[in-house]
Amino acid sequence: MSNFNDLLKGVRKVLLIDPAFPLSRKSHNHADLLPVGLLKISSYLKSRGIETKLIRLRNQLLKSDLDFDPDLILITSVFTYWANEVKNAVDFSKLHFPKAFTVVGGVFASLMPEKCKEFTGCDYVNEGIILEAEDIKPDYSLLGEDESKIDYQIVHSSRGCVRKCGFCGVYKIEPTFKCKKSIQEEIIRKKLIFYDNNLLANEYIEELLKELVELKNSKVISRCESQSGFDGRILRQNPNLATLLKEAGFVNPKLAWDYSVKSHKKRKEEIDILVEAGFKPKDISIFMIYNYDLDFVELEEKRIYCFKWGVQVSDCRYRPLNRLDDNYNPYAKKPQSNEDYHINHNWSDEEVRQFRRNVRQHNICVRHEMAYYSNAAERKKIPKEDSLKFRSMSFEEVKNYLSDAWNPLEINYPKHTKTSLDDFLVSGEKK
Ligand code: SF4
């Protein structure tokens, strides 16, 4: 942003605030939601002689946290539906540091600047990325004791994307596609997690991957992972990239399958390219957006193809880019409605929950190389010797013994789940 430096005129001390965003149970990369943007900004500010301090509102506040007299407060934002957490951070700033100028930046701020200002009550909204802090090492020292717990580093080798998918806001936040040829100078950890929106679209991707292969061979890095799915079209055009990804130490590759089941032959081709390069099918995941334009049945058809190919599914529940809340509760005892969270017109609350459940069970089957899933077996409610005996059975065989056996190869519509042991073992097999 061109006037970020204007905000810094006369500023001596900057407080960086990471709001108390909810923790994700699903992704270890998000486990601690490292505020990498703030850490990079801190490095930039320090290079200009400005003192910085970080407060992570998820952590317990220390007395010393308030012992700072900032002129400027920078608060980060992520998804629009985490707007409340950003508002709480602004309220916190206004209460404890009333003289400081409060600025919100990040994804929500960039997607809905006016709404962000009105909703949070901040003094200013900083739209887009701060270019001055792009090619800079993050200031991990701000994390204090947390620093030693973080053994990975988040990196961006590109910003923006070459595509414009309907459900994605990248083109608004990062409208220009910018690529780096090298990231060597930024590396401070052995494990790298790429937060690029479309890593393979980087025009220098071959050079970049070759650099990573060298860094891996010389043990500067140990492994890499891409947070986003690889662009299958690019992989099909240049299958050699899969070999370079493998040599560079990439793990758990993901491919995106956002469109119709009719494109299944292309997905298979992309999976074959990854397998040919040495990745195991069960370590590959296919990203699928659900609760969006394709209905439940088509998503299930896609999931079944994935099972036949032996790959996992990474489900991604659609939320509109302009919705400020998401109170979906995976443990809700009662059905939830559109009031609680976005339910697309062609989906129901039951289908959303069922698809999530199917994906979880599907992934357990893939990881354990089993032809069926059983809740009773997972919860160790079946005697161990029976469990072992059943393990290698086909679904057709095991359903004679386990009434809760779930078949990953069929469309599993919403239904009531069974809960007691007697419900799981079919008659004649009850203990
Ligand atoms: S390819 Fe990915 S990052 Fe690019 S527009 Fe589509 S969803 Fe967004």
Structural write-up:
With 431 residues, this protein is an alpha/beta fold. The protein has three domains: 4-131, Cobalamin-binding domain (Rossmann fold), CATH 3.40.50; 138-368, no CATH class; 375-424, no CATH class. 33% of the residues lie in helices and 13% in strands. The chain contains 16 helices and 13 strands. It has helices spanning 4-7, 36-47, 83-96, 107-111, 113-120, 170-173, 205-217, 232-237, 240-247, 264-276, 296-309, 349-368, 375-378, 384-391, 395-398, 421-424, and strands at 13-18, 51-56, 72-77, 101-106, 124-125, 152-155, 158-159, 178-179, 191-194, 223-226, 254-256, 285-290, 312-317. The strands form four sheets. The chain has a five-stranded parallel β-sheet, sandwiched between helices. Strands 6-9-10 form a three-stranded parallel β-sheet, with no helix packed on it. A three-stranded parallel β-sheet has the order 11-12-13. Helix 7 (205-217) packs parallel to helix 9. It is globular, with a radius of gyration of 24 Å. The model is unreliable at 27-31, 417-425 and 427-431 (pLDDT under 50). Iron/sulfur cluster (SF4) is lined by residues 161, 163-165, 168, 170, 197-198. The site of iron/sulfur cluster has 8 residues, from loops. Its cofactor is [4Fe-4S] cluster. It comes from Methanobrevibacter woesei. GO terms for molecular function: cobalamin binding; iron-sulfur cluster binding; metal ion binding. Residues 32-125 form the B12-binding domain. Keywords: Iron, Iron-sulfur, Metal-binding, S-adenosyl-L-methionine.
